Amino acid sequence: MSALRALAYRGRFLGHRLRAAIRPPLPQTGNYFVAGISGLELPRHPSIRRSRPRPLEHQDTDYARRFDDTSLFYDVFQLDGRVVAVGPPLRNLAELVDSVSASLDGQPVSRESDLLLNVERSSFPGSGKVLSLEAGAGVGRLEAPVQPAQLDVFDGRRVLLTISKDNRLDWIVDWLEFHTRVHGVDAALIYDNGSQSYSPADLLERIRHVPGLAAAVVVPWPYKYGPDGLPDGRFWDSSFAQPVMWEHARRRFLMRAAAMVNADIDELIVAASGGTLFDHLARSPSGALLYPGQWITPVRRGLHWSGRRHRDFRYRLDGEAPYLNKWTCVPARVPDDVQLGIHRFIGAFEATYVPEITFRHFRGITNNWKYDRIRGRRRYRPQRHIEDEVWVRQMRDIGWSD
After folding, report:
1. How far is residue 111's CA from residue 260's CA, in Å, rounded to a whole number?
2. How far is CA 16 from CA 3, 53, 69, 231, in A?
3. What is the rounded end-to-end Cα distance, in angstroms, of the chain?
4. Span 46-82, pLDDT tens digits
5. What is the mean pLDDT of the chain?
């Protein structure tokens, strides 16, 4: 039985069984606020689920728990004369969504879809305050508030962007302070992926006071992060929270930003030749940069581990290969049909590769949410560990080291 027929058979498709994952905005103070989102989720019933793209023989024992098979849309927002709904690829659920009657403030609308890598962007032409999905008389109805596209908040700003879960607040503050002082970042957009240690409001309260930040927005993003691909690089097909986040941030918040910077909390960007990240961006013909990463080991000589911070680590492994690229771009200069990936631009687009920029990737700044990347690596070995002179010099320049 198809998902659509199963829903019709039960006679309780929308309203009664389908749920709206709505996070209303908290009171806004200028350019500092917790954003609202309007997500739509399926009922938790085994016959009404997103199909799994990965072959069964390549699903590990934790795959089903980590895979998001119930979310239709992660958010619904107004943009340029249309309402946009972003979420994971609908796959088998597309039949379900296209079978219902959609309306904006009571006016019927049709759905158009753009399928990207691990993302689906649905568009409904027109404007309105409420997107409604209705399956017919006696079956049910679901309504989702249409969120605003808050492009003005980041207009002309240099925005540091990430997704984070339960990273320590002092790590996040250090990450922001470093990039504001070294590169001139002046805004932050952080997607909180369901942190249990603090609320989005707690996070906002800590970061809004970072010197140099003219805007800071926290977006609650309570969706499953998703299973990783295989170690050999195959099957990166089931992790949706971060790819959808890039698309959402670009469209709802950042199309008028001067720059968006892709950096995790455990990553600090260093320019070996001097100058700032944005100096290099200004010289890029395409308005986009790619640059490699360098692991910094969790060796922390003579100090207590529990209070560790980025500035406490300074060693790299001799001969260790560079880490995967990260990017910075001017959002409006990336073609509309080019997707923002985690480590690359997906589509016909050539970013400027800048090897003298390297982000330091700190193994010790982690809560081991994905895997234990510290075990067996904390012991100092003089024959293997080399002090990262460029990183140490950068720390001295901003008073992080003697």
Report:
1. 29
2. 16, 28, 19, 42
3. 68
4. 778 999 999 999 999 999 999 999 999 999 999 999 9
5. 90
Distance in angstroms (rounded) separating the CA atoms of residues 123 and 133: 14
Question: Same domain for 156 and 259?
Answer: yes
CA distances from 252 to 151, 156, 189, 273, 402 (A): 7, 15, 11, 35, 43
Tokens of 21: 């994952």
Instruction: Examine the pLDDT at 369 and tell me if it is beyond 70.
Output: no
The bridge status of strand 130-134 relative to strand 101-104 is antiparallel
The residue assigned the tokens 């977006």 is 219
- Nearest-angstrom CA–CA distance, 28 and 25: 8
| Rounded Cα gap, residues 270 and 278, in angstroms | 12
- The pLDDT assigned to 305 comes to 73
Neighbours of 5 (CB within 10 A): 12
Distances in whole angstroms, Cα of residue 331 to Cα of each of 58, 184, 247: 36, 18, 11
User: Which tokens sit at 74?
Assistant: 């992660």
How far apart CA 6 and CA 13 sit, in angstroms, is 9
Lowest mean pLDDT segment, chosen from 9-13, 22-26, 311-315, 396-400: 9-13
Residue 330 vs residue 141, higher pLDDT: 330
Instruction: Please calculate the CA angle 289-392-352 and round it to the nearest 5 degrees.
Output: 10
Do residues 105 and 251 both lie within one domain?
A: no
42 has a pLDDT exceeding 70: yes
Residues near 47 by beta carbon (within 8 Å), at least 6 away in sequence: 1, 3, 6
Number of domains in the chain: 2
Supply the pTM of this predicted model: 0.92
**96 band by pLDDT with thresholds 50, 70 and 90:** confident
Domain boundary residue, one of 102, 119, 145: 145
Q: Which of 100, 145, 96, 104 is nearest to 123 (CA)?
A: 104
Last residue of a domain, one of 145, 180, 198: 145
Q: Would residue 61 count as lying in a domain?
A: yes
pLDDT of residue 28: 74
- Beta strand pairing status for 141-145 and 158-164? unpaired
